[in-house]
Amino acid sequence: MVAVNDHQNAYRYPPRVEIEVDQHDPASYAIAAERLNESGADILCVQHEFGIYGGPAGSHLLGFLDAVAMPVVTTLHTVLPEPDAHQRRVMDAIIARSSRLVVMADKAADLLSANHGVKDSMIDIVPHGIPDVPFESSDMFKDDLDLQGRSVLLTYGLLGPGKGIEHAIRAMPEIIRRHPEVLYIILGATHPNLLEREGEAYRESLEDLADGLGVADHVAFENRFVTADELARFIGATDVYLTPYLNEAQVTSGTLAHVFGAGRAIVSTPYWHARELLGEDLGVLVPFQNSSAIADGVCGLLDEPERADGMRRNAYEQSRSSVWSEVAAQYMEIFDEVAEQKLVEANGAADLVKFGSATENFSGLKLDHLKRLTDDTGILQHAIYNVPNYREGYCIDDNARAFILCNRIEAYFPGMRIPEVDMLATRYLAFIAAALDESTGRFRNFMNHERRWLEPFGSEDSHGRAVWAVGMGASQSADSGRRKLSAQLFENSISAVTQFTSPRAWAFALLGIHEYELTRNSSQKARAIRELLNEKLLNLWKLCSEPDWPWFESHVTYENARMCQALIVTGAAIPDSRSLEIGLSSLAWLCDQHRMHDGNFQPTGTNGFHHRDGERAVFDQQPVEAQAMVSACIEAFRASGERTWLDEASRAFDWFLGANELGIPLHDATSGGCRDGLHCDRANENQGAESTLAFLIAATEITAAKRPLSHIHAS
């Protein structure tokens, strides 16, 4: 078990709680994720409620879900009908990171479908669990609590204004007039968060209300937490349970389910869970904030004990499917299905994955050509058709991309340790480590097939991409040795970026810092460099952008979306609203620029690019441009919660599969490779490392963004 603490060192847990998370400390979430990954757990079941996790609307949970390496089943205790922007963003991100969602009421499932576009196949409705207790009379429990001769009303749970208890107290004079033996027990401590903010002001206001109405002798406040056995005795002694809640939009009430399952008569306001549970004469529903109706509902049951007894028996029988053993069996069935899906992915079963129009024929991720291009040194740059070209040797650019791919697979195909990926990741990281000149802190780029470096240091872009790769390795690698080496390489290479002038190098480094900050290895140096590079990109945009050209440079060239992506992830993480807004708006403009008349993706061609005052080159179109757009749009979706960004990502990915200017697929389903580009009359038939990795990374990322996961063909 992982416990989330709202007060540091405030609780003493039983031994089964092995990990604790500080609600407001993002680093503690990263540490917990790493420990879970090391534990070998098959599935993570997350209990989600707004207010439990730190960050805006509980956004600290998202980094944790990104970092864990196993499938996630999320139980949603609340699904809001009208979430604000932060709540919607967080909920959409949780949905995107979950293999299955569990809710406890039909209304919650309806809201997930209507507000978040979740398919029915991803949602399971499992009732709130209840103890399995025998159906018994209240008299024996009243004897135990010294309440003989009293008609007992009960409300229990953490005390707070949303419970509407004041309306139940206002009903007491009329109830007492008709049933002078009544005692209303309000059981439970004040909610800790309310206690910290306001002390006992709310409880004292209720006590003053009871005094003022002259019913204090008939209202008992039990201001404490009680054990499970004590609670069972209080519930057993209850004749009528009251839930006078104020808000209709409550899809789950554990206290209501508990008392219903114990076979008690219930009077409740018609919030969503109560309407579902208490229909068909299984309880009494009364209007919100209506004390007279509460009094009538309670007295009606006390006046007609036979009717109340029949209601109790019906509720008890109806609730047997909700006892904990039955609920546990339903959860185990869900876990088994998710685990089976994981095995199917690992074994390479061939169900089709559908992302959109052109993607319907894409059948999974095939690593054959990646392995064909890789030898004992690293990944070769180029191929002649699908045959590796030894004459061109190696470069750190492609080995960094290949290491990024391996880390993405390990993070996005959770719970799987694919031997080929483990071996390949080690080989690519070894190349990156050999490329670093520790005396200068710079990475070399090109190496010939005889393993001789061809220059003292590489381009700024290649260095930035290597920083990105090792930053990701430090947080996402499934192997502790690779994580430690990646962190060491990151620390030894990040400072050089501060002297660079290439905006793309800045962007790559920002993406690497973002990944690195997900680990316990985060450092003041990395955060300072992040602020510096973020400001450099913002200043570049400010100097160059115009209303009709909201861009960072006077030309659109290559891997353009990376600058947008860097600002989006940085703006969301720091947080910095300027960076996020500029990242999203510039990406939206780029999407418009890269959209054909028929709606397909059309990246800027490398044969001339696109200058502010000139025509945009259409050819030659490069796979790396489509992949950058896929990545940036997925990050835009995660930051904004707007699902239209997933449509943009799908449009860019479809380019690989034939939704392009010539209707020619760039992805070769037979080899698993990707053709090197799209010319005006044909595709470039060579399948080099850059293009193949562009496709594989894009496929991995969009698969993860559009759960359920597709299948990976490792053979």
Structure write-up:
By secondary structure, this protein is an alpha/beta fold. It has three domains: 124 residues, no CATH class; 183 residues, Glycogen Phosphorylase B (Rossmann fold), CATH 3.40.50.2000; 366 residues, Alpha/alpha barrel (Glycosyltransferase). 48% of the residues lie in helices and 10% in strands. The chain has a six-stranded parallel sheet, with helices on both faces. Strands 3-4-5-6 form a four-stranded parallel sheet, sandwiched between helices. Helix 3 crosses helix 24, helix 17 packs parallel to helix 19 and helix 20 runs antiparallel to helix 21. It starts with a strand and ends with a strand.
Number of helices: 26
Ranges with pLDDT <50 over ≥5 residues? 347-363, 708-715
Number of strands: 24
Give the neighbour order of strands across the main sheet: 9-8-7-10-11-12
N→C terminal distance: 36 Å
Gyration radius over CA? 30 Å
Helix content: 40-55%
CATH-derived topology of the largest domain: Glycosyltransferase
- Characterize the overall form: elongated
